[in-house]
């Protein structure tokens, strides 16, 4: 095969569902099925889970950015895929159970990943797509981004998106989104606690990269310890949370990175992290 033929063959090969680019410790994962509104099909969830697994194992990755191509960040589950399963002998029950378990596992994988995951929302995040945003540790959005859990409009309450949503917004705010199925804009999403910051679209890439690099500059071990402790203590009674957090802080204090960080601060120099 000639070089030109090889290049032509490569260019015609289908793109993977998720693209990636690593720069200065910041890994950008991009959902790239805009023609399907970046729906969480089984293929998409498999691809994203695989990339997150690799990110968790790669010492070069400090922070993960999760974005998407097109006007829709993520439209939630693939309704065509769900509808096709109705033709199965059990009416689709086994398929629905498998898909929802796969989605739940993916959302929990994001929470358990030992590195911060930041959603970057430039379009519509709906249903399980809104769940995806809520499952990330942080979320940044343009002022044109919108969010909704519209399942109630089609007779399918957004019960699994509710889990992540209710851990971001207050109960009444979450219920408002779930019961009305109406979209909220970025400003409302920020007031609800669903996103952290609103960024003008023209400056998105630069601001997001700088934001992520600030976090990536910290000790990777400290980020791992802190993220795990944050989610574990959330579900504990107050006294238990303090006991647990104190024990985590003691173990953290005994790490090499904590010793280095404190020494560097006292000596007024930049710390040298080893992840130990």
UniProtKB/TrEMBL annotation:
<comment type="function">
    <text>May play a role in fatty acid biosynthesis and insulin sensitivity.</text>
</comment>
<keyword id="KW-0443">Lipid metabolism</keyword>
<keyword id="KW-0809">Transit peptide</keyword>
<protein>
    <recommendedName>
        <fullName>Enoyl-CoA hydratase domain-containing protein 3, mitochondrial</fullName>
    </recommendedName>
</protein>
<dbReference type="InterPro" id="IPR052377">
    <property type="entry name" value="Mitochondrial_ECH-domain"/>
</dbReference>
<comment type="similarity">
    <text>Belongs to the enoyl-CoA hydratase/isomerase family.</text>
</comment>
<dbReference type="InterPro" id="IPR029045">
    <property type="entry name" value="ClpP/crotonase-like_dom_sf"/>
</dbReference>
<dbReference type="Pfam" id="PF00378">
    <property type="entry name" value="ECH_1"/>
</dbReference>
<dbReference type="GO" id="GO:0016836">
    <property type="term" value="F:hydro-lyase activity"/>
</dbReference>
<keyword id="KW-0456">Lyase</keyword>
<dbReference type="InterPro" id="IPR014748">
    <property type="entry name" value="Enoyl-CoA_hydra_C"/>
</dbReference>
<dbReference type="InterPro" id="IPR001753">
    <property type="entry name" value="Enoyl-CoA_hydra/iso"/>
</dbReference>
<keyword id="KW-0276">Fatty acid metabolism</keyword>
<dbReference type="GO" id="GO:0006631">
    <property type="term" value="P:fatty acid metabolic process"/>
</dbReference>
């Amino acid at each position: 095969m000639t070089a030109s033929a090889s290049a032509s063959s490569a260019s015609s090969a289908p793109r993977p569902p998720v693209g990636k680019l690593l720069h200065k410790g910041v890994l950008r994962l991009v959902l790239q099925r805009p023609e399907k509104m970046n729906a969480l099909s089984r293929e998409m969830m498999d691809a994203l889970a695989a990339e997150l697994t690799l990110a968790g194992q790669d010492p070069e990755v400090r922070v993960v950015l999760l974005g998407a191509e097109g006007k829709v960040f993520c439209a939630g589950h693939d309704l065509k895929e769900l509808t096709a399963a109705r033709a199965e002998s059990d009416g689709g029950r086994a398929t629905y159970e498998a898909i929802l378990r796969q989605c739940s596992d993916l959302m929990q994988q994001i929470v358990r990943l030992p590195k911060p995951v930041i959603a970057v929302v430039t379009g519509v995040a709906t249903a399980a797509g809104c769940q995806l945003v809520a499952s990330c540790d942080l979320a940044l959005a343009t002022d044109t981004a919108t969010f909704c859990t519209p399942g109630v409009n089609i007779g399918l309450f957004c019960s699994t998106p509710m889990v992540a949503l209710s851990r971001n917004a207050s109960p009444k705010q979450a219920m408002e989104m779930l019961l009305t199925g109406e979209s909220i804009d970025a400003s409302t999403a920020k007031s609800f606690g669903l996103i952290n910051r609103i960024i003008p679209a023209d400056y998105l890439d630069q601001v997001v990269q700088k934001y992520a690099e600030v976090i990536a500059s910290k000790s990777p071990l400290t980020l791992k310890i802190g993220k795990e402790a944050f989610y574990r203590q959330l579900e504990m009674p107050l006294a238990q949370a303090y006991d647990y957090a104190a024990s985590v802080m003691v173990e953290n204090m005994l790490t090499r990175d904590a010793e280095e960080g404190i020494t560097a601060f006292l000596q007024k120099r930049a710390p040298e992290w080893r992840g130990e």
